[in-house]
Amino acid sequence: FRRVLFRSPDENRYTGEVRILFTCDLYNEGVDLPFVDCLLLLRPTESVTLFLQQLGRGLRLHEGKETCLVLDFIGRAHRRFRFDLRLSALTGLRRVELRRALEEQAVRLPPGCGFNLQREAREAVLENLREHLDANLRRLEREVQDQARDGTPVTLAGFLERSGFVIGDIYQRCGWTTLRRKAGLLPALPPEDADEEAQWSRGLGRLLHIDDDLRLDAIRRLVVEGQSPRDEGDRRLLRAFAARWATQPRQQLATSILHERLRRFPELRRELAEVLEVLAARRQLAAPDRRWTDDEPLAVHAHYEREEMLCLLGNWTDERQPPWREGVRFLEATRTDLFVVTLEKAEHRFSPQVRYQDYVINRDLFHWQSQNATGPDSPTGQRYLTGHVDGQPARHLLFVRRTHQDAFQFLGSLAHVASQGAKPMSITWRVTPAMPMDMVEGTSAAG
Fold it and tell me: What is the pTM of this model?
């Protein structure tokens, strides 16, 4: 293909002899043809990652190329096609934010990018969004009952594939076990037991951000199969699961209580296994799998909530669950700073006093602003500047999320590059390893 496309002594210059190229799952990724300026999508896919990779074949910069025309012939071929998933991935907006943005024609994109829909297309997309976003519990029940009529066992993965719903649609309203009971696929429980099981069932929805093999494998072994922890890393992974599954914020959930709940409500164990199957199947192609240290089972570029960070870094036990709401947490035992950053600080959630200037500069550099009380001469400021505390090396770890509704992505360690100002300090950090490209492309270095 390369010789046909280029046919030139200069292998980087396209000759223009080939005008149309059809492939079937051949050039979805890993091929850089920057001169491509038109895409015809003829292959249906429910994978947002694959959809974005296909779009990427036409989004490369090239001399004389100003736009890329995308003709999608699949979008309306099936009533279950999900515009909300595709457009959410394209714009970075959450699905509930997307409808308002389209209605107000106020979709925000990075500088240099534009998003326009013709009136008829906008109405069709909005109709599709309303259909899928307004799904209520009764509609979910009917869909489960319809799928069960042919006598085939209804699994979570099978239900999602056949219905066109995503797993978050279920856990916004109830849990999978609760939904099956309401649909009559499971026998009813006494009211008190049903209420308690429903709480724990819906609580599994707090795991939907998990996207690394370390946690998926550990939960499968230690909770679903009931194996004993092999080492300290396993014990921390089990605590992280228990802390996240707790039915109330900051509720103590010792691992012994966790197993007692599963013995009392055996359907929850089956539900957990099915949730793990769905999470494993939807993992990105370049999924996080690099373990941070032997004792700290964090995966680089995976997503975490605060209690999971503390568990996996050894600062959370069955007996002690320290509260944490600030943007920085210093773990004295390991001389580790945890920086948690929200890039888009909604005015109603962040007062002007804590709306710091935090943003991605490029894949290697991150700009961060300290708390207002921190100056370069303070012990904390010196720890940031020198990377030491009490003469011993200190670590700085960075976790970033786009909005307050997202989980934090672990981006790695920080090293001081430059700083200015005092109370607050503005620091430029070098991030190791390099940040993923979607983190750079999805955020602005304008602050």
Answer: 0.74
Interatomic CA distance for residues 392 and 381, integer angstroms:
15
> For residues 267 and 50, which has the higher predicted lDDT (pLDDT)?
267
Backbone angles phi, psi at 371, to 5 degrees: -65, 155
Which residue has 């066992």 as its token pair? 153
pLDDT digits (tens, 9 = 90+) for 407-435: 999 999 999 999 999 999 999 999 999 99
**Residue 34, C-beta contacts closer than 8 angstroms, at least 6 positions apart:** 60, 61, 62, 65
- Single out the residue of 41, 34, 76, 73 nearest to residue 55, CA to CA: 41
pLDDT tens column, 365-395 = 999 999 888 999 999 999 999 999 999 999 9
Query: Three-state DSSP class for 431?
Result: strand
Note every long-range contact of 442-445, with CB atoms under 8 Å and residues 24 or more positions apart, other chains counting: 442/92, 442/110, 442/402, 443/343, 443/359, 443/360, 443/402, 444/110, 444/111, 444/359, 444/360, 445/359, 445/360, 445/361, 445/362, 445/367
